């Protein structure tokens, strides 16, 4: 496989979606989101459900 540098402005949303559908399966993707739960949780509800993990120093 060859690494290629591309102009990100040359890639359309449709092309990016086409490539994502071709090479990635939703069953094989792990999405990690880090941030303030109070701010982002409601905004992420449209995407789906998530497992929440807290770190020992997290004030929750």
UniProtKB/TrEMBL annotation:
SUPFAM superfamilies: LuxS/MPP-like metallohydrolase (SSF63411). One of its GO terms (molecular function) is metal ion binding. This is Peptidase M16 C-terminal domain-containing protein. The lineage of its organism: unclassified sequences, metagenomes, ecological metagenomes.
């Amino acid at each position: 496989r060859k690494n290629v540098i591309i102009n990100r402005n040359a890639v359309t949303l449709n092309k990016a979606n086409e490539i994502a559908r071709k090479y990635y399966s939703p069953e094989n993707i792990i999405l990690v989101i880090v941030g303030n739960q109070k701010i982002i949780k409601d905004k992420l509800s449209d995407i789906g459900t998530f497992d929440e993990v807290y770190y020992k120093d997290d004030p929750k």
